[in-house]
Amino acid sequence: MEVELEVSRQRQIAWTIGGIIGGALLVWKLGTVGVWAGYVLIALGLFRAFQLVMSFVNPPGTIVVSNDKVVLPRGPHRGKPLEVTPSEVTAAYFLRRSVPWNSASPVLVVELGEKALAFPRDWFASEADQRQIASALLKRMPPIKPAAEASA
Fold first, then answer.
1. Is 92 helix (H, G, I), strand (E, B) or coil?
2. What does the alpha-carbon distance between residue 38 and residue 19 come to, in Å, rounded to a whole number?
3. pLDDT in tens, 5-60
4. Residue 121, φ and ψ in degrees, nearest 5
5. How, if at all, do strands 107-112 and 82-84 pair?
6. Could you tell me the fold of the domain covering 60-143?
């Protein structure tokens, strides 16, 4: 099963334009505090411009779940996805209520031992894609042994 992430570039475009233009206006028109705030806005605008360029350079990423491997992108438009076996996935679940205010709910969380990768709703075309990935991962996870068997 393969699901390609669909990430919007609107936020990067808005921050690039607003940060650079707004920061330049603050530097041009205001005093010392405004100038420093303007430099901060310009820096944020340039950082978002870098992210925007990287979104054109790198593909958005694809989550692949098969019987022999699981490929998970480290984030949208980042190279070198994480490739693991299905037995390395320790948990897959949704966070519906306890998500940060700037993330769309639900968030698909895939745990790989000590690591956890989070995939917010706005990275997918639909919530059904998230559910399909979660169910495919849960089907391929090794069964959980009861505590009595594990200690024996």
1. strand
2. 8
3. 888 888 899 999 999 999 999 999 888 899 999 999 999 999 999 999 988 988 88
4. -60, -35
5. unpaired
6. PH-domain like (2.30.29)
